[in-house]
Design goal:
Blueprint: H1 2-12, H2 20-93
Keywords: Membrane, Transmembrane, Transmembrane helix
């Protein structure tokens, strides 16, 4: 690991015969490129967030519609269950009026 650090340090130190103006200019260019890259990254991040808002609103609306549909379905199920129970109670409590109790005799057609 120390070998890599020494090699990196040797690469980063300017050569003994290097023009100091070029060294400063290269560091400035590196800094400017880093700032431009950072600025572009922030712009892309902001554009992404702005484009994400309509997607979130659409998903929120879909979830709200699904919640309302689920609530209506549960209410309809409760109503159907109560209606079924009421019909069953009426059927149990009510005597069947289509049946006539009593005796009958068959008359001959002769």
């Amino acid at each position: 690991m120390m070998i890599y650090i020494r090699q990196w340090k040797n690469k980063m130190t300017p050569q003994p015969g290097a023009n100091p103006f070029m060294v400063v200019l290269s560091w400035l260019l590196l800094g400017i490129m880093l700032l431009v890259a950072l600025g572009l990254g922030l712009i892309f991040l902001l554009v992404g967030w702005i484009l994400l808002l309509p997607v979130l609103w659409r998903k929120r609306r879909q979830i709200k519609q699904m919640w309302q549909f689920n609530k209506a379905a549960q209410q309809a199920q409760r109503d159907a269950r109560e209606r079924h129970e009421r019909q069953r109670e009426q059927r149990d409590n009510q005597n069947d009026s289509s049946v006539i109790d009593g005796e009958y005799s068959v008359k001959n057609d002769d």
